[in-house]
Design brief:
Elements (H helix, E strand, L loop, with lengths): L2 E9 L4 E9 L2 E6 L7 E4 L4 E2 L3 E6 L4 E2 L2 E2 L4 H10 L2 E9 L6 H12 L6 E7 L5 H4 L3 E3 L22 E3 L1
Parallel strand pairs: 1-4, 1-5, 6-9, 9-10
Antiparallel strand pairs: 1-2, 2-3, 7-8, 11-12
Length: 165
């Protein structure tokens, strides 16, 4: 273990409790009462510790009409990481004449190689004719979604209905 965040008030999706977070090679490996005499220790007494926050609604390197955000996928995900966010889910806005699948591919090419944390994309469908959306199907599988356009972000065993290419 490289680092232990000790004595924090840990908030997860399912619980809140006083405890520690153990980190090895930049990844959370233990949550609870963590002991390792070799690890560097940060005292988080009186502070919230949010391990593995997922931001499900981001606008990174986003354009909309005449406005554009100042960040790109590097600066946006780096800032998210400093705030404790480990995964972002961003938009792939379908441009005029573009299929939703092409929008996902385009956004992935903009993000890959620049992101500092895990990410996923979801299609923002703006043109819903048969040609542009006919390739999508509805999935209610409990298996993680694995497409060439996004990384899975949900926990195994949870149920999710979504559109996948």
């Amino acid at each position: 273990m490289d680092l232990i965040i000790r004595n924090g008030w840990i908030v997860t999706a399912h619980d809140e409790f006083a405890g520690d977070v153990g980190i090895a090679d930049g990844k959370i490996v233990s949550i609870g009462h963590v002991r390792d005499e070799r690890a560097r220790v940060l005292d988080a007494a009186g502070k919230l510790v949010l391990p593995g926050v997922i931001d499900m609604h981001t606008h990174i390197d986003h354009w909309g009409g005449s406005a554009k955000t100042d960040d790109d996928f590097f600066s946006g995900t780096r800032a998210a990481a400093f705030g404790g966010v480990t995964t972002v889910i961003d938009f792939a806005i379908q441009r005029p004449g573009e299929t939703a699948e092409a929008a996902l591919r385009r956004r992935r090419s903009e993000a890959d190689g620049k992101v500092c944390i895990d990410y996923s994309l979801h299609a923002h469908v703006t043109g819903a004719d048969e040609r542009r959306c006919g390739a999508f199907r509805i999935s209610s599988s409990t298996e993680p979604l694995r497409s060439k356009c996004s990384r899975p972000t949900r926990k195994p065993g949870s149920r999710l209905k979504t559109m996948t290419a």
